[in-house]
Write a structure and sequence with these properties.
alpha+beta, 23 strands
Length: 648
């Protein structure tokens, strides 16, 4: 396992938080002039249909009393925006946090909002509830269901619909349904085509790095305060409770497919390769209601999500919204989604869909226009702003995605990371470059002196760039880290985007306080249970330490007591492969066990030797070879350094 030596925390006098500077105060004040803050329609919609909530807004796990979601200390958001928050983001935070609980969308459709980053929607069928998107954790989804049952009458859950393959919409499923009921056919689970593959590849193959970067993006380790966390933009905050995976029992593959569930008719429109690779939206004829899933929310979404993810297709996104208008635009009374509040009235809903469509299309088309003129992604992001007809609309603002980083995403999707200038084809890695820059610029002290002047002038973006070199070259330099932290902080205070604010403020936080404790990350048992073997093998393949496996060769025949098909698992050429329905004539060893025990063993939850002494594993061959083989599998540390160099 890679060990990191972490730079020390800064002395108390540098530990912040600091007030907004004059430059930040001025910049934030201009936002109030630029946008129509007297437009209160969103506040009316966010409050409409309120039934009940819990107070304080705090959710705990019953087993051990651990708090999994706590937004009870955000009441400071009731006042006016302070100088340390962009007023436009403050408005969005108010909309998210001050409107939590159970709401009626129409008679028969209800939403629980702000019990997690997303919404859980409940549709009343003839006998029970159809649940749309059971949130991120079981504690949040159970609390949401309890609230609905308490105020609307207790009903069994008869079906679950996952709108798409992102964890904040499915990993809380075990809070509202049992594995057994799903397997017994008592509860249907409906999802878009390719859901399992996408859900697991996104969250497992690149899971460790995404999770670490998500700490920055979602800011859940930041204190809640006007100088700290206020919102994620997309919603309040992600809950941190029990996650699980229940695979769908029914997949939708084509636009126009319908299902009748517990007497409720649903018409689906596939929207693949947009906000998620696997996603659909759907219409309820009897309620004249359209669920837009996460295709439209009340902000500009991410074409590229800064926690790290594959790039999304802005043009497909715009086209899918247009198709929703064509299919359902003339017959809807209300539109709701997996985040934020609904839009009532046909005219308002269609107008909202049109501006969302044009938002993504404008970013797509104008980025490529300027790219074709020869501008690089940084140059395009610097000059392109939305036309005022789109920009004045709060539902198009930068609360989650930003125009700036979405432009770069469109550029990279078409043209890749390289801008054509050979100077950028093979640059030195950050620490090497930083040391040389510092040397050329006369050393750290000289750079810090100049950077302090730029800080006084409010040139925070430039100071961040320069001071990052100093910290990368000299991670124990206290004045350097302090100045970089102060700079990130002002950038955070100015940001309109929740993720940008959180990235900057959490970057400052780690520079000031060091990294959280190390914790090697195992795949979680709840997740492993529902994960098909193919996905487990691929997850193991990206954990194989290639250089360590140099020259090694292993072939294991795998026979699973609960499955009909045998597998081969092998390492050769420093590559991990798995082959279904095959057996090797001369294997290193043959293993007989249950598929679940195999998954637990390979993900480090249980040792082969313990399984053997329990008679849960019989092994024909040399057990030492299995141990050797498993030592080639890397463990990932959850808290690798980001704002400081890797090796100190
Ligand atoms: Zn979501």
């Amino acid at each position: 396992m890679t060990q990191y030596t972490h730079p020390k925390a800064l002395p108390k006098e540098f530990s912040g938080p600091n007030p907004a500077t004059e430059h930040t105060e001025k910049k934030n004040a201009t936002v109030l002039e630029e946008l129509p803050f007297d437009d209160r329609q969103s506040f009316e919609n966010a409050a409409r249909g309120f039934i009940a909530s819990i107070s304080p807004l705090k959710i705990k796990r019953s087993e051990d009393g651990k708090t999994t979601y706590d937004q009870s200390d955000l009441s400071f958001l009731e006042g006016e925006a302070p100088p340390t928050v962009n007023p436009s983001l403050w408005r969005q935070a108010q909309l998210n946090i001050m409107h939590h609980g159970l709401f009626e969308v129409v008679d028969g459709i209800y939403q629980v909002r702000s019990f997690d980053i997303g919404n859980m929607t409940l549709v009343r069928g003839n006998t029970g509830w159809i649940i749309i998107d059971p949130l991120t954790s079981a504690e949040s989804s159970r609390k949401a269901l309890d609230l609905a049952n308490e105020h609307l009458g207790t009903r069994p859950v008869v079906a679950v619909i996952y709108t798409h393959s992102h964890a904040d919409h499915f990993s809380g499923a075990t809070g509202v349904v049992d594995f057994e009921d799903v397997h017994a056919g008592k509860v249907q689970v409906i999802a878009p085509d390719h859901f399992v593959k996408e859900a697991l590849s996104e969250n497992v193959l690149a899971g460790n790095v995404m999770l670490r970067r998500a700490t920055y993006m979602y800011g859940h380790l930041l204190p809640h305060s006007p100088q700290g966390f206020i919102t994620c933009g997309l919603g309040t905050q992600v809950s941190v409770g029990t996650i699980g995976f229940i695979a769908p029992t029914d997949s939708i593959t084509k636009t126009g497919e319908t299902r009748v569930i517990d007497g409720v008719e649903i018409v689906f429109q596939m929207t693949p390769d947009t906000e998620a690779v696997s996603e659909f939206v759907f219409y309820f004829p009897q309620f004249r209601a359209l669920c837009m899933s996460e295709i439209t929310s009340h902000h500009l979404h991410n074409i590229y999500t800064p926690r790290g993810a594959q790039l999304r297709d802005a043009l497909a996104w715009a086209n899918q919204i247009n198709e929703s208008i064509d299919l359902f635009g003339d017959k809807l009374d209300v539109l709701f989604a997996s985040h934020h509040w609904p839009t009532w009235g046909r005219e308002a809903a269609v107008e909202y869909l049109k501006t969302q469509r044009d938002l993504y299309k404008y970013i797509h088309d104008q980025t490529l226009r300027l790219a074709n003129h020869g501008y690089t992604k940084e140059e395009i992001a610097e000059q392109l702003t939305l036309p005022y007809s789109l920009a004045k609309n709060f539902s198009n603002r930068d609360y989650y995605g930003t125009i700036s980083h979405n432009i770069k995403a469109v550029y990279v999707k078409y043209l890749g990371y390289f801008n054509g200038n050979p100077a950028t084809l093979n640059p030195l890695p950050p620490v090497d470059a930083a040391k040389r820059y510092l040397d050329y610029m006369g050393g750290a002290e000289a750079v810090i002196a100049k950077a302090k002047e730029s800080f006084e002038d409010g040139e925070y973006r430039w100071v961040a760039e320069v001071m990052n070199h100093v910290v990368m070259a000299e991670p124990e330099n206290i004045p350097a880290k302090a100045l970089l932290a102060d700079t990130y902080e002002q950038l955070g205070y100015q940001a309109e985007s929740g993720p940008w604010r959180n990235f900057y403020l959490y970057g400052a936080f780690e520079l000031r306080h060091g990294l959280p404790e190390e914790e090697p990350r195992k795949l979680r048992i709840n997740l492993i249970q529902g994960m098909p073997l193919e996905n487990i093998f691929q997850a193991l393949a990206v954990r194989l330490n290639g250089p360590k496996a140099e020259g090694k060769r292993y072939t294991f025949n795998l026979n699973f007591s609960d499955l009909d098909t045998p597998w081969i698992m092998s390492v050769e050429n420093s590559v991990f492969n798995a082959f279904c329905n095959k057996q090797d004539a001369n294997p290193t060893a043959t293993l007989n066990m249950s598929s679940l025990d195999f998954k637990l063993m390979m993900t480090g939850h249980i040792k082969a030797i313990d399984l053997m002494s329990d008679n849960r594993l019989t092994l024909d061959g040399d057990v030492e070879k299995l141990v050797e083989f498993s030592e080639l599998i890397d463990k990932f540390n959850q808290n690798f350094p980001i704002v400081t160099p890797r090796d100190v």
